[in-house]
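Narrative summary of target 7.
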Amino acid sequence: MTEKAIEYDVMTAIHLPVTERVLDKLADILFATDEILDMLHVEETVFDARTIAVEDAADRIYKQVNELMKTLSD
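Modeled conformation, tokenized:
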């Protein structure tokens, strides 16, 4: 017997509670902001005013989404 991965769109997966669907999308945002921060922290990155602004914004978003996820999952 083989296992099949079950794929679903959280936007239309009405069988899941709204909180679960929201947490799933917030996890996507958290992952994306973490990737942005990783991209900025490579040796080749030149930290000018624009790069620093992007890093600060991504860091704020990461922290806000993380706190929101903690609140929703409690």
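The two ends are 37 Å apart (CA to CA).
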